[in-house]
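Please predict the structure of the following assembly.
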Amino acid sequence: MNPTASPAPTGGLIGLDWGTSSLRAFRMDATGEVLDTQRRPWGVMNLPPAADGQPDAARATAFERALEDACGPWLLAEPSLPVLACGMVGSAQGWREAAYLDAPASLDDLARGLTTVEYGKGTPVHIVPGLIQRGALPNVMRGEETQVLGVLAGRPMAADTTVLIGLPGTHSKWATAQPRGILHFHTFMTGEVFAALRAHTILGKTMQDAATPDDAAFARGLAVARSAEGDLGLLSNIFSTRTLGLTGALSATAQVDHLSGLLIGHEVASLARQHGSGARVVLCGEPDLCRRYALALAVYGFGTPEIAPQATARGLWQIAVAAGLVAATPSPRSLL
Amino acid sequence: MNPTASPAPTGGLIGLDWGTSSLRAFRMDATGEVLDTQRRPWGVMNLPPAADGQPDAARATAFERALEDACGPWLLAEPSLPVLACGMVGSAQGWREAAYLDAPASLDDLARGLTTVEYGKGTPVHIVPGLIQRGALPNVMRGEETQVLGVLAGRPMAADTTVLIGLPGTHSKWATAQPRGILHFHTFMTGEVFAALRAHTILGKTMQDAATPDDAAFARGLAVARSAEGDLGLLSNIFSTRTLGLTGALSATAQVDHLSGLLIGHEVASLARQHGSGARVVLCGEPDLCRRYALALAVYGFGTPEIAPQATARGLWQIAVAAGLVAATPSPRSLL
C-alpha cells in the first residue's frame, strides 16, 4: 500500500452514532477512512443545556447544540460536508422520528429510507431508519442495522453466504445476514437484565467486585445453563448464585461472573436451538464481552467466532455511498 | 360444633412469622386456634431503634425490643407461654442462626432441630431451622418449610399422597410433599425479577399502572411463553413487552400484566417439564397471585389447583406440638 494514496482531508462525511446515552461523531475522508472521532455524553436522553441555562423553545435546538459541540470545527472548516446519523436520534424521542423499515432490508432499502432534517445551518442531517421485524413478537433495532452493514462490508463473502452477526451489549442483537442485507434478527435483554439483577435484587447483596474476570466462575454459570438443571429455566437458575455462596461453593467475588455465565449461557442456548451450532458467527462489540460470548459459543458447539472491529462508522459510510451523499471512491483498505 | 368447646384463652403458643421486612405474631390458644394477630414492620433488616436513640450494645437487644413490642401484653398476661419463630430470624443476619436441615425433612426432623435463644425474660424463643437441598444447584428456604407443613396439616390425605405445594411470591417456592414432610423443592425468583424489570429496565419506561388486573394481557403473556417463540427464552421474550407497545398492539396499561404473564408462564412451563401436568397442586399465597398462577397452571394443562389459606400459624402449631412445646389437644377444626 502506498501512503501517498491517502487523500487529503477534503470531501468525505460526518457520521454520527447517536444513542440514548452518548454521541460519537466520525470525520471520514473521501474514501471513508476515519480521520477523527469525537465523543460526547449528549445522548438523546441527555442533551446539553443552553449556555444561559434557559429552556429551549424547541427540542430541536438542543440537538443542534450537541451537533455543533461535537462537530463544529469540522463544519466550520468544510461547511458542505454531508452528515449522516444512526441510532436513537431517529426515535420518537429523537431529533426527528425516522420510521422503521421492515426486515428483511438491504443496504439500498436503508439508503432510500433516510429521513432528512433541515436546520438552517450547513447541510441537512440525514437519519438512517431503524428496522422492525413484525410477527407475534415484534423486534426493533436502531443503530445496530448500521453496525451490521459495517460488519458485512468488512468481510468480503459470496452473495449467498449467510452469517449470524452478534452485537452483545445492554440489548444483544443477533442478525442473520447476507452481503445484500439483513434477513432476520433477535433481541436479548441480557446486559440490562444482568445489571438490574446485580443492582436491584438479593443476588447483588452477597456479591463483591473481582479485580479480574473470573473465567472459572463464568464457565460454571455456562455449564449450569447447559446442564439438566438449565431446563429449570433462568428464574430458577439465577438463585444458585446466592445459594452456592451460602454453601461456600462460590466466593463473593465469583458470584458476578457466575451470574454472567448463567445469563449468556441461556442466551446462547436459545441461539443454538434457533440456528443450530453450525452457523458462521461474527461478533462485534466490547472486547471482554466478545471474549465471553466466544467462550459461551464454544460450550454450545459453535466454531470459533470471527471478531469484527467496531463497525458503525463503516456502516454509515456504506449507507452514505448507497444514498449518493458521497461518491463511491474505493478506500485503500478495500483495494487490499 | 358446639361453641362451648372453645377453650378459654389460657395455655397455647405465641407463633412468630419473622421475615426480612416484617414480623407477624400469632397468639394461639391451647387448641392452636389463632386468637389474635399483631403485625409490625420489624423485619430482620428493619429492627426497632432504642427509645433513647442510642445504638444497642448487642444486636440481640433489638430483637428483644421487637418481640416485646409485638407480644408484650400477651407475655405479661401469661409469662409461661412458649414462643416459636420461623423465617429469616434464624438466618445469619437473624437473632440466632438456626442451621439448615437437609431436605427431605419431616415434621419431626424440624421439631427436633429447633434452636433455642434464652434471653432472660419469660420463656426462651425457639427457632425453626430452614431447609437446604444440596446438589449442583442448592436450594434453601426459611419460613416456607413451616408454611408447607401448615398447608399439609390443613388437608387430610393418605400417607403416600404426593402434592406439589406452590407458595408464589417474591421468591416462589414449589415443594413436593407428602403428609410426613417435604421431599424436594424449587425456587423461582419470579416476583423479585418482575419488580426489578419493572422498576429498573427500559420495560418500565412505557408502562402505566392499570386500575384493575388486565387478564387478557396476562393471558397473552402466558401464551407467548407456551408458544414456539417461548423457546427463545425469557431474555428475548420480555423485550416484546416494549415492542408490542411500540407497534400499538399492547397499551401502556396492559404492559405490566403482559410481563407478569411472561414470567409466570415461564415458571409454570418449567414446572410442567419437571413434574408433568398431572401433579396435584395446592397454592398458598396472596389471593390475586394465586388466581394468576391458577390461570397459568390451566394453560399448561394442570388441573384446577386447591387454594390453601395462609398456613404459617398452623405450621408453627404443628411444629410446637411435635416438639412438645404445647400439648397436642385436638382443635375444634380437626374434629370436623
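Chain A touches chain B through 48 residues (CB under 8 Å). Residues 1-8 of chain A have pLDDT under 50 and may be disordered.
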